[in-house]
Amino acid sequence: DIAITPPHKPSYWHSPGIEPMSAMTLGQLVDVAAEQWPKREAFVSLYQGHRYTFAELREKTDILAAGLTQLGLSPGDRVGIWGPNSSEWYLSRLAAARGGFIAVQIDPLYQPPQLLHALTKVGAKALICPGDSFYLRLRAIIPELDSYPESGVEIKSDKIPSIKFLIIFSDKKYRGAYSFGDIMSSASPDSVQKIRDLQTLIDPDDGTCILFSSNHRLVVPVLFCHMSGSMCGIFTLRYGHTLVVVSAAFDTKKMLEAVIEVG
């Protein structure tokens, strides 16, 4: 038999680092980044052709947050974000933080049963997602959508009583849904200023997001909808780095091309 000698060191190594923890909200971090690096490139989505500086990122985020507030959302409301990695996903996540909403980050691979569970479990008041196949999956759990006009309205669902608003990434018209552009264009200068004033009232200990476990091993690429993609991507704001989205789903060739193009 082989004798196994236990290691003569503690299992926990305390190493706090040289930078103290900051009592700062994600929304406040957007302000810090925009003030410190206003003209530096903050976000690039190569497959969409979108590029935003830190100042532009804050501007778009605040306009979206203000539009959602105009729609009827209030701090503490749960907002589902369901879709692949994209500029709209990232803007929606930051807008939720700026508006004091709780982002419910939903896996884009969810089928109707999982989506129904996620939305009902948290009591989501709004859902932001792409159209096409995502909308088809939504119709399976909210059949009432077929009775609405091809424009944004307050919806009602027997299966998801909490849901009131559906926002689609596309400008294409869908029954019962607002387009992303509708929400952005509805924001007034006063409502945008209210979002900026709100940043001092949101507490770092307030809830900011809800994640669902897949109960499976993590596979790459990581998605915005869960911890690695969401938190690691958002933390580029802390140090003024650029977040690059290569494609909606993993593509080896595009990933290597992106490394060459943007380093």
Give structural notes.
GO terms for molecular function: medium-chain fatty acid-CoA ligase activity. This protein is α/β, with parallel strands linked by helices and 263 residues long. The chain has a single domain (38-262), classed as Rossmann fold (3-Layer(aba) Sandwich). It has helices spanning 26-36, 54-71, 87-99, 112-122, 133-141, 180-186, 189-198, 227-234, 236-239, 252-262, and strands spanning 41-45, 50-53, 78-82, 102-106, 126-129, 165-168, 178-179, 209-211, 243-245. The strands form two sheets. Strands 7-6-5-3-4-8 form a six-stranded parallel beta sheet, with helices on both faces. Strands 2-1-9 form a three-stranded mixed beta sheet. Helix 1 crosses helix 3 (87-99), helix 2 (54-71) packs across helix 7 and helix 4 packs across helix 5 (133-141). It is globular and about 60 Å long.
As for the CATH topology, it is Rossmann fold
The CATH class name reads Alpha Beta
Q: How helical, in percent, are the residues? A: 25-40%
What is the overall number of helices? 10
Radius of gyration: 20 Å
Keywords: Ligase
GO biological process, one term: fatty acid metabolic process
InterPro entries: AMP-dep_synth/lig_dom (IPR000873), ANL_N_sf (IPR042099)
GO molecular function: medium-chain fatty acid-CoA ligase activity
